[in-house]
Amino acid sequence: MSVISRRVAAAAVSVVLIGGAAACGPEGNDGAEGDGGAQGSAKKGGTLTVLNRQPQKQFDPARLYTSGGGNIPSLVYRTLTTRNREDGAKGTEVVPDLATDTGTPSDDAKTWTYKLKDGLKYEDGSPITAADIKYGVERSFAAELSGSAPYLRDWLIGGDTYQGPYKEKKGLDSIETPDAKTLVFKLRKSVGDFPYFATSTQFAPVPKAKDTGVKYAEHPVSSGPYRVVKNVGDGEQMVLERNTHWSEETDKERHAYPDRIEVKSGLSSAVINQRLSSGQGADAAAVTTDTNLGPAELAQVTGDKKLAGRVGTGHFGYTNYLAFNPEVKPFDDPKVREAISYAINRTSVVNAAGGSSLAEPATTFLPNQKSFGFTPYDHFPAGKTGNAAKAKELLKEAGHEDGLEITLTHSTAQDFETSPEIATAVQAALKEAGIKVKLEGLEINDYDEKTHSLDKQPGLFLAHWGADWPSGGPFLAPIFDGRQIVKEGAGNYNASRLDDSKVNDEIDAINKVTDHGAAAERWGALDRKIGEQALTVPLFHPVYKRLYGKSVKNVVISDWTGVLDVSQVAVK
């Protein structure tokens, strides 16, 4: 969100976890192997089973909202760039995929040029060309194929009015293909993070002659190590087999160990975790890309040494926080916002989110990862259990010596994020500071509509934000850039209504920086500066814990996705 995150955050990172776009890295695999597991030698062969709750409903590369190439999608679609397939922080790096490098910028990062590698082929043996990638990008503008991240509508010259190749045969002039192996993207604004977004499946090649429109997802033309041989029930059951024309010589990121991959969705979390733990039959070589262990399940697993050795731990760039709307009293008063910041008991909030194994306390808006520019700060130190005395002092200064009454809006979804458990923990902490909190619980659709609509946003509500890619830009801009305030519809994420020219100008300036490390430092400094205004109260960052089958080897979990990377897994 900026955009990937806008949807990802609102959907509890479903895109990231199901499709594999943005999500976490290993907290630590201590070498325990269960019954042969993660550290065993990897060999080609066998069948990998993926057990999921949610079906892969969108499998057309134009409709997928994902960065890093996705998880299951990345097995079929290659993109200009991709995520580095390594554990932890190294996995937040962007690396070449179809392209020879991550792109050459010019004109203050308003122009990006890519050269394709030699020997790239589709599943039928035909060559992949620059024109195919241009066409793949253009398809994502078609109304019939909506759903992907809309950045290019804003970035590409002419993208704001382009309607896709089905209605406009001419295509986008801002994507040039001077020869079969060169692409040039012309942007309206500086985008130093363009190589990160070029990992999106919108940049997957699609041969125009084989485009079947809305039916393309049923049998897309593979550029990756696997081809789709079955896709039924709107992605509920999928079968992938080897693409014999894929070459490891041109693809150093994917290993493609299994001969066959079967995706089975529509299962409950309890069933998935039970099947993974027992590991009977085909389930011994099974993984999940969308189902975490809950607090109770984790407690059971921790007590079993073999099972504990089959838990992958990941961190995704994601922050759960309290959002203020300063247009609603008393949150227009900075002292009230500061008082609430001091009063928060992060220990109780973390416990409500499942405990310290599943959540880490947060005092910064940016996630605590270097790639985002994480800069430690705690402007309103509440300690581990809240600073009620300081909160009362500020309330007195604000004219609320006898305390005050406020409403906290949350969802009724049992997601351990915006749910009643978290709201109740906040309520109890604020009570200690003399703040009486009325809880307003809304069904998830009503919650999303109310908290994301400018004219309906409550004064105080539980919120969350996930990363479109591992950078500070898509994390800070949608929440604090005044030009991204959305006045109509349910798409406003800048609840604080912050529209500060200095903040906006700094965002523009950082976007010109193509050195990711240098940009990260500036994002961190900007986060620290904005944090002084107490426009949000960071609460915690989630930790993902997921079981995998006892025959699964070569487990890789990066800080880009936070979940097991199926392109690295072996089952023999």
UniProtKB/TrEMBL annotation:
Recorded hits in InterPro entries, A to Z, give:
Peptide/Ni-bd (IPR030678), SBP_5 (IPR039424), SBP_5_dom (IPR000914)
- Any Pfam family matching the protein: SBP_bac_5
Q: Does the keyword Membrane apply?
A: no
What UniProt keywords apply to this chain's record, in alphabetical order? Signal
Domain (Solute-binding protein family) spans 93-483
* Key word Lipoprotein present: no
Q: Signal peptide: which range, if any? A: 1-23
Name listed for the protein in its UniProt record: Peptide/nickel transport system substrate-binding protein
Tell me the lineage of the source organism: Bacteria, Bacillati, Actinomycetota, Actinomycetes, Kitasatosporales
